[in-house]
Design a protein that fits this description.
- 38% of the residues lie in helices and 17% in strands.
- It is an alpha/beta fold and 298 residues long.
- It has 2 domains: 30 residues, no CATH class; 251 residues, P-loop containing nucleotide triphosphate hydrolases (Rossmann fold, 3-Layer(aba) Sandwich), CATH 3.40.50.
- The protein is globular, with a radius of gyration of 19 Å.
């Protein structure tokens, strides 16, 4: 299915990059990987004028896939930020698998972060923290298609700006990995390119993560996004016979990518928002927290 010429950014095709125009001419389709390089209309934001790049304060937490521990890391960052006197807030641009609440759908990831950090937020702020909620627990593009409510980048940026009028910084958590589709033409990487925040990658410390993590870092580099480093999480149980693999993964990835290793989290089964013992283990593993907090300071 060809992408309509004016549906991508509202910018006339004559202003698209030459590679994008050539691809469209030859194939009738706009290549997704070029989306982040397309010019965007100028608009005024909280921090001044920008061309599709929201000048907001915060970090963007992505992962090598689903279920690797992004929400745990986001909550840990928020807990540390609060302890350091930084008024940071969680921001989940797109949440699938949303839960029913007394006033409509709620974002479980945002709820967990707020509870873990002991943060209070008004109902209005909570809505800003999760602008796009979908009940189907699937890829954002599919959930949006099922519910006939497409993800809108301008609405996400507007929500971030409104939240920043009340808070000092945002801890943004993506959905899945960098190449997860958000709608029929754009991916999570495109949203990351629009927000232009420094990126923290969470990787599952399991067999196969070398390939997944290096591909993620390569995509970030190609999009000219700053990668702060990688946090390795152990989601599949305590150390066992494969512990030698888990020890090698961070060193090998750092050697091949030059990415900083900002943490190695132990397995903490069934981590609850209020578990002091569990958070103590997580926080001990996040050795790069000072580097992360530096990017959240006013």
């Amino acid at each position: 299915m060809a992408v309509p010429a004016m549906s991508l950014t509202g910018v006339p095709p004559v202003l698209w990059p030459s590679r994008a125009k050539m691809a469209l001419r030859l194939t009738g389709r706009m290549p997704v990987l070029l989306m982040g390089k397309m010019p965007m209309p100028r608009r005024r934001g909280k921090w001044g004028w920008y061309d599709g790049r929201a000048m907001v304060r915060g970090i963007f937490i992505t992962g090598t896939g689903t279920g690797v521990g992004k929400t745990v890391v986001a909550a840990a960052v928020l807990r540390a930020a609060r302890a350091a006197g930084i008024d940071a807030a969680p921001f989940k641009p797109v949440q699938t698998g949303a839960a029913d609440g007394s006033r409509g759908l709620r974002a479980p990831d945002v709820d967990f972060c707020l509870a873990a950090a002991g943060l209070e937020a008004s109902a209005d702020e909570v809505r800003m923290m999760a602008p796009f909620l979908y009940k189907p627990a699937c890829s954002p593009h599919l959930a949006a298609r099922i519910e006939a409510r497409p993800v809108d980048f301008d609405a996400i940026i507007a929500a971030a700006e409104k939240l920043l009028a009340r808070r000092e910084a945002l801890v943004v958590e993506g959905a899945g990995g960098v190449m997860v589709p958000l709608n029929e033409s754009r991916t999570m990487l495109d949203l990351m390119a629009a927000l232009r925040l420094p990126v923290l990658v969470v990787a599952a410390n399991v067999l196969g993560t070398i390939n997944h993590t290096l591909l993620t870092l390569s995509a970030l580099r190609a999009a000219k996004l700053e990668c702060m480093g990688v946090v390795f999480n152990q989601p599949n149980g305590p150390a066992g016979a494969d512990d030698y693999i888990r020890r090698d993964n961070p060193e090998t990835i750092a050697r091949f990518s030059a990415a900083a290793v900002l943490g190695r989290l132990p397995h903490v089964g069934g981590l609850a928002a209020g578990s002091a013992a569990g958070w103590s283990k997580v926080e001990a593993g996040l050795t790069g927290m000072p580097v992360i907090l530096e990017r959240l300071k006013p």
